[in-house]
Design brief:
104 residues; flat; 7 strands
Length: 104
Amino acid sequence: MPSMLVIATTAVPDHLRGALSRWTSEVVPGIFVGSVSARVRDQLWRAVTDTVGNGAALLVHPAPTEQGYAIRTAGTRRRVPADFDGLTLIRMTAPKVNEMQSPF
C-alpha cells in the first residue's frame, strides 16, 4: 500500500534529482514529496545513498513508531537523528574546524 514520503536533498547531483522526480514531485528546490510503496521507497533511498556524493539527504516516511514516522539520512550533515528512549530527536554536532570562523 502506498504511503507518503519526503526526501530533502542538499547539493546532490542533477541526475539524482531527475531520478527522484520520476516518482515524486519537487515541491521546492531539493524537497521531494510522493506517495509510493515501501519497495519503491527503499529503491529510491538506495539510489540516493549510492549517489549523494558530497551532498546530503534526508528521508522521512511513515513507520510503526511512537512518533508515526522514521528518519534516514545520507551524506554529511550537522543535524543527526538520535534515538532517545524510542523517540527520534535531532542532535546538532559541532562544526568542523575549517567551518568555524576565527575571531582574529
